[in-house]
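Practice problem. Given the sequence and the SMILES for flavin-adenine dinucleotide, write out the predicted structure.
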Amino acid sequence: MMVGQEPTTYDVVIVGMGPAGASAAAALSRGGLAVLGLDKDTHPRYKVCGGGLSARIEQLLEPGFRSVVEQTIKGVQFVHRGRDPLVIQSHEPIAYMVMRDRFDHYLVQQAVRAGAVIRTGDSVEGITQDAGGVEVVTGQGRFRAQLVIGADGANSLVARQLFPSRSQYRAPALESEVQIGEGPHFPGSATILVDVGAARQGYGWIFPKRDCLSVGVGEFRRKATNLRATFDRFVKEEPGLSGWDVPRPIGHPIPAYSEPERSQRSEGRSPFVNGRAALIGDAGHLVDPLFGEGIYYAVRSGHMVARAILAEQQVCAASLLAYEASLEREILPDFRVTSRIANVVYAFPRLAFKLLRRYQEVVQAYFRVLQGHTTAAQFLLEAKQRLKASVNDLLLEALQMR
Ligand SMILES: Cc1cc2nc3c(=O)[nH]c(=O)nc-3n(C[C@H](O)[C@H](O)[C@H](O)COP(=O)(O)OP(=O)(O)OC[C@H]3O[C@@H](n4cnc5c(N)ncnc54)[C@H](O)[C@@H]3O)c2cc1C
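Answer key:
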């Protein structure tokens, strides 16, 4: 449809068909609403991402998602600057590895099957809202709806246009896919590698896929650094990567959750909901501040916004307030905890690495969070009790290491 024609009307327009948007589109369509999903790219498309899904994703997705899982992870090899490997295993899966082209395509197909209209290869250029609804203008058309959901990722246009005062903080990350063909997976086909000393206030990772390794670094700090140099050093220091051709990494920001600025809070402006618009997934900065895990929260926030909209008899802006309340209840308490853990771990990475070795049961307890058996808040209580006994030793070690 060309710009200038009478806009087509839907109940909800969703901008962005990554995991957040596709999940919301499927759930809203199953609930009987007329949904339009828009994406500037055409699926399947490459996406810079480690593709690690924590095992609790099983609680959100139909079992069919396993058709795109490339590896099932049951162990983590921790290292510090490529040395002193420590492998911690779990009986149950901790994570599933996917390539985002296939995973996202699978989710979009689920949305189409549920009845959503999906337009890809059409970029959204502008959004306005008024008393009667929202209008979304793309390169090829104009669409009206009662509500708009911004699921357009870390560089969200919906957020820039409709939430101009919210936090802009995003962590830089770099990743490359190392093709290994039939070669051996490093550190193993069921084991991921996490290097806690690879980056300043961040970490390096190697995630095994079927015939490649996703190799990356991310830094959760506000000061800019030379991340390319950090990536190169990480690659050089990991013995398992020597001999492989590591292609030039691609950068993309990770919008890790951080508390809204005080000024924003005092003015009562929400970072998630504004009138007829809601932000989900990366567009809403719904990414765990400890590991940068965002796919699980993208799918979950997609389901949460759909649940809130469908709970009302009529599609209306008021339903979005229930979405915001459910974020406050179900997701943000965990982010506040993992943010506190991240502050400690990334300030003292060598100490954190030592603690991992000494308190392996604490890591096992965190696996239970990733497996969906418990929450991060509950984990912190248990971990504190476990660590309390040796607090003096820990402080002494921290002082010696500075
Ligand atoms: C290097 C790196 C590694 C990562 N590794 C992991 C990991 O291992 N596990 C994990 O859980 N998370 C990881 N993440 C985070 C994860 O990639 C995101 O949290 C996740 O993609 C969020 O999903 P989303 O649907 O919100 O956004 P996205 O997946 O970014 O999808 C947004 C969609 O919106 C579309 N779009 C954007 N602008 C427009 C527009 N103007 N008009 C129309 N469409 C538009 C895009 O084409 C895209 O398809 C990683 C991130 C990075 C950068």
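Check your answer against the key. The chain has twelve helices and 18 strands.
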